[in-house]
Amino acid sequence: MLTPAAQVESVMEIDLELLDRLGVRALLLDLDNTLLAWNQHDLTEEVREWVELATGRGFRLCLVSNATPKRLGVQSRELGIPCVPSAQKPRRRALRKALRLLEVQPGQAAMVGDQVFTDVLAGNRLGLYTILVIPLHLKEQWWMKWVRQLEGLIIWWLQRSRNAWG
Asked: How many folded domains does the chain comprise?
């Protein structure tokens, strides 16, 4: 449940061709530390271009974030894609809502985010292809320091186990 299908440095490294071959038609995207550094308000031009590239290739996108409706709504309007705020990930309700908005089934969608215990767990619980992104910025809420350390141990263990089993 905590193992992502893929791990990348940033959303710009997501292999859209591979996702297309796998039958993925929609991307559910976390906001903070995935597309936008935590506590920042301006998306980079690189992220905007990647969103245009993904939508231009036919992918349906939706922001699914634990962020507030106000914060997520601003980014949603700027990118021109729908959003589901206050997602309460790892609960699945918001992901299901996003799938309905995008008119796709779980096997046709990927969850992209920076946290194992929210994004990856929620996506895996629903049967989505999960992509873990390295956080854009390490300055976060004070309690996230311990969450990140635990995530790091889990990722290390998962990679070690994967290498041991071939």
From this structure: 1
